[in-house]
From TrEMBL:
Pfam families, A to Z: Thioredoxin_3
Thioredoxin-like fold domain segment(s): 5-65
Signal peptide: none
Organism domain of life: Bacteria
SUPFAM superfamilies according to UniProt: Thioredoxin-like
Naturally occurring in which organism (per UniProt): Thauera mechernichensis
Protein name: Thioredoxin family protein
Length: 77
């Protein structure tokens, strides 16, 4: 099973992306974790290690995919 982490900041752009992209992932293939960096600031460093520079972003097996633009990680610190 592949791992997916959806990082967001709770903004309307992020919530909309979460609703669309997370539902599209096959739960039989992906273990999905949703991380709200607005509330879980201790996870920002993890997002940076994956190469995430803005949210919303979906990381699948360590590969970041940036979706639209809600906020830069620097703005969340």
């Amino acid at each position: 099973m592949s791992e997916a982490v959806f990082f967001h900041a709770g903004c309307p752009v992020c919530v909309s992306a979460e609703q669309h992209f997370i539902q599209a992932l096959d739960p039989a293939r992906y273990a999905v974790e949703v991380v709200d960096l607005g509330k879980q600031k201790n996870r920002i460093a993890q997002a940076e290690r994956y190469g995430v520079v803005s949210v919303p972003a979906l990381v699948i097996d360590g590969q970041p995919f940036h979706i639209n633009f809600g906020a830069a990680l620097a703005d969340l610190k």
